[in-house]
Design brief:
The chain is α+β, with helices and mostly antiparallel strands. Helices cover 22% and strands 42% of the residues. The chain has helices at 2-7, 53-60; strands spanning 12-14, 18-25, 28-31, 38-41, 44-51.
């Protein structure tokens, strides 16, 4: 269920914890850390987790 929900445009919400969403990353230039050589990183789809405000406040405390 979570996998199917994450594939949708709205993502999959876990109430009080956060949301799984699918994001399209653009192609970009990067560096090989071993050699310092510039490399091209291809565009790709990735899965991100956005933490809910209630969970963040419970762990970090409420901002004043």
């Amino acid at each position: 269920m979570a996998y199917k929900g994450a594939k949708s445009a709205d993502g999959f919400t876990i109430p009080g914890i956060g949301k799984l969403i699918k994001v399209q990353r653009k192609a970009r230039m990067g560096r090989n850390p071993a050699t310092g050589e510039a490399i091209k990183i291809k565009a790709k789809k990735v899965l991100k987790f956005r933490i809910a405000k209630a969970a963040k406040d419970a762990v970090l405390g409420v901002k004043k």
